[in-house]
Write a structure and sequence with these properties.
alpha+beta; elongated
Length: 235
């Protein structure tokens, strides 16, 4: 019994160390992604995007979509390099690997091609608020540009399709719902309520991590041995 408990302890410790390592590599990958974003290196940014998205759209169209948003007919958006405030969620398991929800800040400068007249400033602010999905857009009269801030949510995924390396996808993408695993979609849904019924519910068992499942199995075996011992004593 001691040997089995020791083996279990080693397994759990190894699993936890693996999670810690995954968190380390996640932070490294996230830093690379934000650096490429700030440098506006869109061709390189494709390589850290969740690859399933390219089953829905070509890499060329993906890049063109970003460039179109960042440079319109009458404006150009520049990323401002800052130290972002990052909130890493817990590492969670999907059907095919690991994922993590990450919130972080970005800053941008929007430079119009021509001077914005006073009567148009509010309309232009509202225009860029809608474009960037943020309320933090302010016109800088002295420099004739707009300062913008936003707090974004991104999903980091390491699974079979990525070779278990960390990649990223914007969950507001029109393709996200079609390519994200159910576990990821549930985690993104603020109205989702996890099932908490009996232990024998197959849905619950399928969602357990390997570590938790092993702990449950060991506890069940221990309980069975205890019951057998009680019956023998009665006999």
């Amino acid at each position: 019994m001691k040997s089995k408990l020791f083996t279990l302890a080693v397994f759990i410790t190894t699993a936890l160390c693996g999670f810690a390592q995954d968190k380390t590599t996640l932070k490294e990958a996230f830093t690379k992604m934000t650096d490429l974003t700030n440098q506006q290196e869109y061709n390189a940014l494709v390589e850290v995007a969740y690859p399933r998205i390219f089953n829905m759209v070509s890499k060329e169209d993906y890049i063109a979509g970003i460039e179109k948003k960042m440079k319109g007919d009458d404006y150009t958006i520049y990323m401002i390099t800052t130290q972002p405030s990052v909130d890493y969620g817990a590492l969670q398991r999907s059907e095919t690997g690991l994922f993590c929800l990450i919130n972080y800040n970005i800053q941008m400068k929007i430079v119009p091609n021509e001077k914005i007249e006073a009567k148009d400033q509010q309309n232009e602010e509202n225009r860029f608020k809608k474009l960037l999905n943020t309320e933090d857009v302010y016109y800088n009269t002295a420099e004739n540009n707009f300062d913008a801030k936003n707090r974004l949510l991104v999903v980091a995924i390491a699974d079979e399709s990525t070779g278990n390396r960390w990649t990223f996808i914007d969950p507001s993408s029109p393709y996200a719902n079609d390519i994200l695993d159910e576990a990821v979609r549930n985690a993104l849904d603020p109205n989702y309520i996890p099932e908490t019924t009996t232990q024998n519910n197959p849905t619950i068992n399928n969602r357990k991590t390997g570590v938790q499942k092993l702990v449950d199995e060991q506890a069940a075996k221990k309980a069975a041995i205890y019951e057998q011992t009680k019956k023998k004593k009665k006999q």
